[in-house]
Amino acid sequence: MSSRREIQVAETLQHLAGEYFVRESNRESLMTITRAEIAPNLKSITIFFSVLPENFEEKVLDFAKRSRSDFREYVKKHSFLHPVPMIDFEIDYGEKNRQRIDDLTRS
Q1: What is the pLDDT of residue 40?
Q2: pLDDT tens per residue across span 54-69
Q3: What percentage of the chain exceeds 90 in pLDDT?
Q4: How far apart are the C-alpha atoms of 74 and 28, rounded to whole Å?
Q5: Which residue in 32, 38, 46, 106 is a FRET match for 2, CA 20 to 30 A apart?
Q6: How many domains would you assign to the chain?
Q7: What gap in Å lies between CA 107 and CA 96, rounded to an integer?
Q8: CB–CB of 37/46 below 8 Å?
Q9: DSSP state of 55
Q10: Buried b (16+ CB within 10 A) or exposed e, 34-73
């Protein structure tokens, strides 16, 4: 069970990630922040995203991982979080699997 603080920090970072990548992306693909999972000690967070078209997933993941330190600076400037947790980015395969199941059940 997540505490109220864990949920609040995760939602804040999820929102800030969406804002950051809208500003910094190259607009060749659509990146959607789907969820954020934070450690109970609030020291690390994984932000999950999906990408359309799917053939850009690896490029976007590389870009997101290269942008971690810049994103941390963005979080420091645009929030009151202290300390800022260590941030990692991952492709949300759970969302892809849910979409695939939906497609199969509609057929």
Answers
A1: 94
A2: 899 999 999 999 999 9
A3: 77
A4: 22
A5: 32
A6: 1
A7: 17
A8: yes
A9: G
A10: bebebeeebeebbbbbbbeeeebbeebbebbeebeeebee
Residues 78, 12, 48, 75: what is their CA dihedral angle, to the nearest 10 degrees?
20
CATH number of domain containing 61: 3.30.300.20
Residue 10 has pLDDT above 90, yes or no: yes
- Per-residue pLDDT tens digits for 25-65: 888 899 999 999 999 999 999 999 999 888 999 999 999 99
Residue 45's nearest CA partner among 77, 94, 2, 78 is 2
So what's the pLDDT on residue 1?
Answer: 56
* Residue 55 domain boundaries: 4-106
Residue written as tokens 């980015």?
A: 89
**Three-class secondary structure of residue 102 per DSSP:** helix
